[in-house]
């Protein structure tokens, strides 16, 4: 499979490495408006392939060279500087998506191509990419709250002393400050969280839950403060999404996709079944009233930002 990655900064490079390590691609093409950067990334990554899979990796200077790509991953655009929110990137990155999508569509097969959006503010960029590409909503997929869900699961795992693989837990809504921690649908080994805590004699009072929520929502800000940007986590998320698509796993992932039409259209993350045709189904988990209100608030915030474009 040929995969194109547009934007080869911190995130695009980490995504390229993660994609390479899946062994699912026979060819990876890298495009960045900074050609020097793209060529250096392709060179470095090409050297790494000598130690892993035999994959053709090249930097391309024209969109014509992405022809034949079945999946296009968009990781281009400005990232958050310390103190900036994802929504502060709105106008800058809308211009980037508006530049990229028409060129991607001119050079890929609209009947098959799937676009994975990573650029922030994620949900609004998914809406814009879908609108400009005119692709079915099932094939314009945002990484959404995959990373937030992973962060939540890892914190829970440490708190409960249970492997992440035995925990089902989701963060829903906006990939941003209004994300919704779906406590009502946390299951540990198939047992609801409160019941599990009773059986395991673990206390998880509201104050601890509030701290966990704060840590999940602030993880990116803390990483950006210490490291300038975040890239490894999102690289892992894209690789996981790629496995689900390429191997037609029909796995449930909290990805972002456009639901609704016209003025009611909005993209946000819900648990969705993902396979080789893209998003196959959207599911609705158990939510309490705070969580349902939170989802409505998330949708409003995303739609408001989309309408500003
Ligand atoms: P970066 O500044 O390191 O790299 C961005 C790259 O995009 C640069 O190399 C730049 O030349 C390129 N670029 C800009 N405009 C372009 C265009 N029109 N065409 C082609 N290339 C273009 O930034 P980064 O840290 O790699 O972050 C990239 C994006 O990913 C940001 O929007 C960031 O917020 C987002 N991000 C998303 C998640 C997530 O969970 N979805 C996680 C981390 C970062």
How would you describe the overall organization of this protein?
- The structure is a single chain.
- With 309 residues, the chain is α/β, with parallel strands linked by helices.
- The chain has nine helices and 14 strands.
- The chain has helices at 10-22, 35-49, 90-106, 122-133, 146-160, 193-200, 206-227, 232-246, 289-307, and strands at residues 2-6, 27-31, 56-59, 71-74, 114-117, 140-142, 167-168, 171-172, 180-181, 187-188, 191-192, 251-259, 266-275, 278-282.
- The strands form four sheets. The protein has a six-stranded parallel beta sheet with strand order 3-2-1-4-5-6, sandwiched between helices.
- The model has no long low-confidence stretch (mean pLDDT 96).
- The structure holds nicotinamide-adenine-dinucleotide.
- Nicotinamide-adenine-dinucleotide (NAD) binds at residues 6-12, 32-34, 37, 75-80, 89, 93, 96, 99-100, 118-120, 122, 143, 147, 175, 229-230, 234.
